[in-house]
């Protein structure tokens, strides 16, 4: 699937404007509803001694026609369901270890999560491939990636990601941006011009 990307700058004060045309981002028909999608960005200032992570949330209201709003929600439920099923064994395995304190339980649990996250992502990818025969729009729906390892929310026809850099004064860097991939090229172009972003067609 070729995707058009739109890159929208984030200002040094952390502000950004993402405007969509009043059209379904997937089919381009008039929009009837919006769905909130929240990509996240995790800033990692951890040292070898301490864990210091801050997660920033960037909510976006995505316009859809009624049909694709329903499909987006359904596809998202399928992918989230697969992901959480892959995380369930971590709870069981942590319990099996019989940790002596809550702190120890937490460390064991986080360790298992490190293993379970990539499995959860791989399984979503597999399930998406297998079920796309029954639900064609599933293959145009982004995979769920938890905030701590990248942060991408699932939605139909659109896949946002955040990049934040900091300059020498610790402010938001000038090359910070939101990049959104679209399956609908026309909607992508309109979003770029409404949001003051740049538009890039996929390379063949
Ligand atoms: Zn639609």
List the helices and strands and how they pair.
Blueprint: E1 4-9, E2 33-37, E3 40-44, E4 53-57, E5 60-64, H1 66-96, H2 102-131, E6 158-163, E7 177-182, H3 185-195, E8 198-200
Antiparallel strand pairs: 1-7, 1-8, 2-5, 3-4, 6-7
Helix pairs in contact: 1-2
This protein binds zinc ion (ZN).
Question: What does this protein look like?
Answer:
By secondary structure, the chain is of the alpha+beta class. It has one domain (4-200). It has helices at residues 66-96, 102-131, 185-195; strands at residues 4-9, 33-37, 40-44, 53-57, 60-64, 158-163, 177-182, 198-200. The strands form 3 sheets. Strands 6-7-1-8 form a 4-stranded antiparallel beta sheet, with helices on one face. β3 (40-44) and β4 (53-57) form a beta hairpin. α1 (66-96) packs across α2 (102-131). The protein is flat. Zinc ion (ZN) binds at residues 24, 26-27, 29, 64-65, 67-68.
Explain briefly what this protein structure is.
The protein is of the alpha+beta class and 204 residues long.
What attributes does this structure have?
alpha+beta, binds zinc ion, 4-stranded antiparallel beta sheet, two-stranded antiparallel sheet, flat, 204 residues, 8 strands
Largest sheet: 4 strands, antiparallel
Strand and helix order: EEEEEHHEEHE
Distance between the termini: 11 Å
Count every beta strand, where a strand is a DSSP E run of 2 or more residues.
8
Q: How many domains in all?
A: 1
Shape category? flat
Average residue pLDDT: 86
**Count of alpha/pi helices:** 3
Rounded to the nearest angstrom, the radius of gyration is: 19 Å
The low-confidence parts are none
> What topology, given as strand order, has the largest sheet?
6-7-1-8
């Amino acid at each position: 699937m070729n995707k058009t990307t739109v890159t929208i700058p984030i200002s040094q004060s952390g502000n950004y404007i993402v405007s969509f045309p009043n059209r379904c981002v997937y089919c381009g028909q008039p929009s009837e509803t919006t769905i909130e999608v929240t990509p996240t960005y995790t800033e990692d200032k951890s040292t070898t001694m301490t864990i210091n992570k801050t997660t920033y949330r960037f909510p976006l209201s995505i316009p859809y026609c009624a049909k694709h709003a329903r499909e987006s929600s359904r596809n998202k439920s399928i992918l989230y369901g697969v992901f959480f099923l892959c995380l369930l064994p971590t709870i069981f395995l942590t319990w099996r270890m019989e940790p002596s304190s809550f702190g120890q339980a937490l460390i064991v649990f986080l360790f298992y999560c490190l293993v379970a996250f990539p499995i959860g992502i791989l399984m979503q990818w597999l399930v998406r491939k297998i079920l796309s025969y029954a639900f064609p729009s599933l293959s145009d729906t982004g995979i769920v990636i938890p905030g701590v390892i990248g942060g991408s929310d699932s939605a139909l026809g659109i896949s946002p990601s955040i990049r934040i850099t900091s300059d020498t004064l610790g402010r938001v860097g000038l090359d910070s941006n939101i990049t959104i991939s679209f399956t609908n090229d026309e909607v992508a172009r309109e979003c770029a011009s409404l949001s003051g972003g740049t538009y890039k067609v996929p390379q063949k």
